[in-house]
Amino acid sequence: MYAEYGFALHEAGRTDEAVIYFRKEKEKWPESAVMMDKMIRNVQRQEEIRKSRTTKDTGSAPEPGGQKQ
Q1: Is the pLDDT of residue 64 over 80?
Q2: How far is CA 20 from CA 3, 28, 47, 62, 64, in A?
Q3: What would the pLDDT profile of 40-60 be if each residue is shown by its tens digit?
Q4: How many angstroms from the chain centroid is the CA of residue 33?
Q5: d(CA 48, CA 55)
Q6: Are residues 25 and 32 in contact, defined by beta-carbon separation less than 8 angstroms?
């Protein structure tokens, strides 16, 4: 149940909360550790990608080569 709720949170864009529920699943059912570790990595990776796209869209990060255009 924790994993399902965590996935629903992830789909709603609430990634920090999703990770909490994936960890609860892992603690309650240790046999799910491999899958939950993978879910946590994927959610965190997707969040990093989303943040980097947001930064690029706002123009707050310098372009490669150190110059903004």
Answers
A1: no
A2: 10, 12, 15, 33, 35
A3: 999 999 989 888 988 777 665
A4: 17
A5: 11
A6: yes
Contact residues for 37 (Cβ-Cβ < 8 A; gap 6+): 26
Q: How far apart are CA 3 and CA 68, in angstroms?
A: 42
pLDDT in tens, 8-32: 999 999 999 999 999 999 999 999 9
Structure tokens at 8: 């629903």
Identify the pLDDT of residue 56: 78
Q: Which of 26, 30, 10 is nearest to 18 (CA)?
A: 10
Question: What's the CA gap between 33 and 12, in Å, rounded?
Answer: 23
Q: Which two tokens stand for residue 22?
A: 């994936």
Alpha carbon distance 24, 28 (integer Å): 6
